[in-house]
Amino acid sequence: MLRKKIISRFSIRNKPGEVPGALHFIGEQKTDSPFIRNMTYDVKSLAESPKIFSNYTSLLEKLTSENVNWLDIEGLNDIKLMEIIGKKFMLHNLLLEDVLNTTHRPKIEEFENATLVIVKMLSYNKIECSIVSEHISLVLAQNTLISFQEVEGDVFEPIRERIRHSSGKIRVKDANYLLFTLLDAIVDNYFTIIEHIGEELEKLEDLILANPSDEVIKQIHYYNRQMIVLRKAVWPLREVINGILKGVGKVVNDNNELYFRDLHDNTIQVIETIEMYKDTISGLRDLAFSNISNKMNDIMKTLTVMSSIFTPLTFIAGLYGMNFDNMPELHSRYGYFAVLGVMISILITLLYIFRRVKWL
Amino acid sequence: MLRKKIISRFSIRNKPGEVPGALHFIGEQKTDSPFIRNMTYDVKSLAESPKIFSNYTSLLEKLTSENVNWLDIEGLNDIKLMEIIGKKFMLHNLLLEDVLNTTHRPKIEEFENATLVIVKMLSYNKIECSIVSEHISLVLAQNTLISFQEVEGDVFEPIRERIRHSSGKIRVKDANYLLFTLLDAIVDNYFTIIEHIGEELEKLEDLILANPSDEVIKQIHYYNRQMIVLRKAVWPLREVINGILKGVGKVVNDNNELYFRDLHDNTIQVIETIEMYKDTISGLRDLAFSNISNKMNDIMKTLTVMSSIFTPLTFIAGLYGMNFDNMPELHSRYGYFAVLGVMISILITLLYIFRRVKWL
Amino acid sequence: MLRKKIISRFSIRNKPGEVPGALHFIGEQKTDSPFIRNMTYDVKSLAESPKIFSNYTSLLEKLTSENVNWLDIEGLNDIKLMEIIGKKFMLHNLLLEDVLNTTHRPKIEEFENATLVIVKMLSYNKIECSIVSEHISLVLAQNTLISFQEVEGDVFEPIRERIRHSSGKIRVKDANYLLFTLLDAIVDNYFTIIEHIGEELEKLEDLILANPSDEVIKQIHYYNRQMIVLRKAVWPLREVINGILKGVGKVVNDNNELYFRDLHDNTIQVIETIEMYKDTISGLRDLAFSNISNKMNDIMKTLTVMSSIFTPLTFIAGLYGMNFDNMPELHSRYGYFAVLGVMISILITLLYIFRRVKWL
Amino acid sequence: MLRKKIISRFSIRNKPGEVPGALHFIGEQKTDSPFIRNMTYDVKSLAESPKIFSNYTSLLEKLTSENVNWLDIEGLNDIKLMEIIGKKFMLHNLLLEDVLNTTHRPKIEEFENATLVIVKMLSYNKIECSIVSEHISLVLAQNTLISFQEVEGDVFEPIRERIRHSSGKIRVKDANYLLFTLLDAIVDNYFTIIEHIGEELEKLEDLILANPSDEVIKQIHYYNRQMIVLRKAVWPLREVINGILKGVGKVVNDNNELYFRDLHDNTIQVIETIEMYKDTISGLRDLAFSNISNKMNDIMKTLTVMSSIFTPLTFIAGLYGMNFDNMPELHSRYGYFAVLGVMISILITLLYIFRRVKWL
Amino acid sequence: MLRKKIISRFSIRNKPGEVPGALHFIGEQKTDSPFIRNMTYDVKSLAESPKIFSNYTSLLEKLTSENVNWLDIEGLNDIKLMEIIGKKFMLHNLLLEDVLNTTHRPKIEEFENATLVIVKMLSYNKIECSIVSEHISLVLAQNTLISFQEVEGDVFEPIRERIRHSSGKIRVKDANYLLFTLLDAIVDNYFTIIEHIGEELEKLEDLILANPSDEVIKQIHYYNRQMIVLRKAVWPLREVINGILKGVGKVVNDNNELYFRDLHDNTIQVIETIEMYKDTISGLRDLAFSNISNKMNDIMKTLTVMSSIFTPLTFIAGLYGMNFDNMPELHSRYGYFAVLGVMISILITLLYIFRRVKWL
User: Fold this and answer.
1) Which residues of C touch B327 (CB under 8 A)?
2) Residue C116, pLDDT score
């Protein structure tokens, strides 16, 4: 059941008292064997390695420091690979620990030889109708960008295409620009999710206005929780990009500042839309509750009208059902019809009153 | 259906992985062919071009750098025109991308050759009863102000009149003052909308106090959502004007600071009024809910009074409708009238009690 | 109807596209012809002009720059007078525009030749039971203080008395101290209103605890809206006095800083009391809602008790009202009395149960 | 009635237009004749005056500037005494005005010859079951500390004992440390009140869980208001102590900084506990409301079960009470018993259904 | 009963007027006799003392200033021991007072000879189903770390193991790193609790969706209060670690900064998860309330359907139970069956109507 994950995703951690910086994978394992691939390019040349699953060392030896290297690791559960990469790029163990902790919140941190950027890739799983969050770590070590993904993904494929076809400025620029490109792809993905939720909220609103069934409150609850998940992923991203703009890790420079500022704008827009949706959901909840109240009112009205009309009539009928010896009306010739007349006048009077107070 | 747009307006974005800075129109296309017009003026002279739909280049060549030029483009879907203007004024592609992204939030950004100000023009569509938001981009490049509007609009027409008749100080001042004038016209427009909503809220309050029908909660929901839209447009505007006052893009100078400070005051006042309306709407919701509760109470009271009065009476009638052989009361001469008397006393007693507890 | 004004008071503005700085009165016109009067004093001398309605120029010529002048204009709708004063003291048109815009929020602004302080005088209209807000502008130009009021008022009369009788330090001090005195009188007035509302809230609380009629929710709504009005007037005042203390317009100096700090204390106290009242009102609303719920519960209890007691009894009566030929009980000698006994035992049992669950 | 005071305590002020700095007592007068006493001490000597009610001047003349003097005035309504003290220590009139205004909020203010600290002493009045707030002003003028209390109090008695017995460091230290000691005693007193309220809230929670009578909501309302009073007294105290730590009035020095920091910690703890109680009260309100709802549900269930069972049975009885000539069932030998059987089966079926849906 | 403690835990303090800095234990005494043990280590050597209960002095004399000493005191109620330690390390009395005050909030404070860090160890008591908070004080005096625990605990045992087996870097590093290790163990413990609560909330959500009994609201109340307790423990911890990172007590240096930053990340994650849980709980409350409303609606529907169906039928039966002499229908041959037919049609019609409005 998916709901389970939403709550527990952020709470798994290493056991109390463990050595800090010890490498072990934290979270839900999503793939069996990781693979690794590399693109080395500059404005003129491009060398692309195939996906490989072992024999990493030869691949790592080929990396050159003149060109931009993009090392992409998909799958996090091979601790040995992590240690090899760590050694090759002289990465701090705490950095690798954060890469392996898929429950870690988005952040940017500058280490001695590298800068670590952690973000969450969100995608919408249409089968389970839920937001799936993937832990993405981007490590910038000089001119090499290492991207760690939890599973084999295709969201960076368009960027690979752009590198291959040298479209845009990507081949002219350095690894910092590549970092920007990856972050931009991730943020663009948020817009897809947000747009999807926007459409769902519209449908929900129509549903509430048309027929507020009990299901509606559960759905509101469900979207509210998705907003909580989204918020947890996106709010810290703002700090990350603010950090970049303030110069953490020397990622930003005169050539790419405008791009990171643009990214910042987009992140703000995602955040504002999420907040707007939270307000909208809260408005929908009020609307749904008021509709439930109105339904109750309608039920009560029906009950009251039916009871109020028939109670006096039944009393009158009961009255003349009494068995007293001396009840003169019973023996009058038109007594029955007179009583019927009285009943009909009471009925009409009550109907008129209920119509006036708008209960009918 | 208009409501749809309110939710989705802010969520459309370019596809993940696309080249950043690539020019394409984002949003809902509102016009077919854009046109362009120009006013070139200084204190003595004024040259006004007619609206034209093609042959932009000749118009662009006539721009002089001594006088103030106001280039007004209405309609955003001609990418080629954008590229020509971009080349002419050496504008960064990211600037043009923001101009074309009608979902972008208001902001001010300083580029190398120009300063971009994005704001939202709001107008009230009386037929659809909704707030319509238009994306306005103002680009200040030296002494030229370029204004981009989504559709042909008439809100800047009074300013054109002032330029033509040289009324006020507009002909004496530079392009920065022209920027102020356009922003001032937009903010003044917000007041119109706010005043309109204020009147609607008054009517709504009268309605709630008079006759709280179910429709009322839906209307409150509707106005609440309009407030969300307004807020999204106006809050970032404050940052924009703060940015100007802090010197972004060197828009502000000794000659016009007072005017921009006045604009700032007005923006604050719009924001405060929106917040006040949010409070008011929330108060109205409480009032409406309490009225619904009171209606329920009235219904329950009626039911209770009717049931409580007739239940014992009907019981008594039923009692003497029993067919036991030996029921002495039935044969007493005045039994029937005695029972009627008892019933009437019960009725009076109950009516008295209900009146004392204020249910009647 | 007064409520109308509460909502719309802050929303009237000049028409979009108008020349900024053009003088015209904005708001609701409250007086026909303004008048003007002047006090010129120093520690030794005092010259007080009578109220005059025309021939302003002679009065303005008599102003001396050695002594403190207090020019008091009551009534804002004489644009010509404004222009004369503006010319005499070389005031910026934007300053005069703010003076004439009775919807402008409180602020302090330093212009070249003068400092403008805008505040709201609040008074309680006992006939209409509402808070009336008056736009007061105080302009400090060297040693002259010009006060603009919307209507002829008497709140500054005690200050005039103090000047006439040279009581306190007012005659020894400069125009800045006079500004303090006027602001102090206005803030003291806020306390009167706040005290009045405090008393009303006490009465309301007593009412809710005693007899929560439907009227109560409307009153809570009404006081909540008055709090919104008060807040809009007082919150910006804090910024104004903070501005003075920070040196805007060089109003504050070694001689009067303690007085302005005292004023600041008082403003904070007004704000805190308003916030406390908001909390109190929100608590009263909860109390009132819970009382309405309790009333509902009481009604339901009555209904349930009455129905539950008589439903089984009526059933039994109905049972023996059936006309079957063969019903042995009907012919037993004491059947009727046995049934009566059964009914009474049921009655007693139910009464006992309802008393145990505290419904009686 | 005590509740009255809670609301109005903070709203009494001098009349608009009065001379600022004029001395007059503001608030509720709590004592008739103030008295004054003095302790003059250093590490070796201690001179303690008796409580006196008049002839202040001789007492004031005996004060020495070498030793620490603690002048304690209990009762504020002797304006003449105030003026004498003011003259003796050259205190500003605004300082004395704040001392006499028992509605003034806690603050610290540095004057030319003295530093004024205003705090609120809170005590719990067990008879009236309410928090009583007393206005305490502490004036530090060189080596003399003057404490002004509204009524004769015993909260400083333990400190007098410590001075007499030279316990702790109090005799070694200066007047600043004495100020700390008095503030510490006041803050310690807050803990007593907070603990008392904590216990009351526990009792309230037990009551809500056991038997949510209507009284409970009133009590929640009552505690909520006490929290508002507490907050008003304690929040500004934090600013006061922050002010001291930041060097206002040169109260803090290397010898006593640790003590004032400790005091700061305690104040934060009081504030956090108050906030925690506010959350707790709000949680209790939700609990109480939900209990009221549940009670309503129980009532409704009873009503529904009783009505639903007897309505069909009564109908059947009524059916065979009809007087049609031709009703074959009536004449069947076992018709009556068959009908009784049908009734019993209906009864059992309904009971079974109601048990399954958990209404029984 | 445990709930009691949650409220009162933070409110016990020393009596007003007591000497500040006087040593006495505050809080609930949890152990009888404290014991003390010591580890002295550097990279090469390790000397570990056994747990001892008396003769502290010899142990204290053996401490060397070259190696790292970890003095662990478990149990706080031996004031004499405190005084001995205080004298040995020249600790300020206020420091010891905070160590002994188990109600003190987490903080970091730099004293002359030592730095005090106070945190709360939280553990989940499975028997009482509640969070238990333990007061932990860590005193860093040069190369000696003194840890004070309320009771004998085992949470630091893994760290002792690491020291014994020289695993990780702990033996290479100084006492500051030891401080980090202890704090890290405590924060890791928070994750255990948070994960536990996360699982409980999932179960609660399933329960609410399946069968919202009255118990649910009490449980929500209970978890909400646990969140309040957690918050009180964790929020100040962030300030503590921020303080460390900002250089308070010179705890942080180039060698351990990364570790403390990692700790900071973890604390933020705990706080964010707590806030997320608060949101989740609030969403669950809404869900539960709406379910209670729906249950009420279902009850009302049943009542209304039963009453509305049988009321008219019973009336008709009553009508023909009247005893008028002249009622032609009674004597018609098929009158009874006609009436039965009418009743059945009414029944079918009402059932159809109730089905259409979805009440059946």
Assistant:
1) 336
2) 95
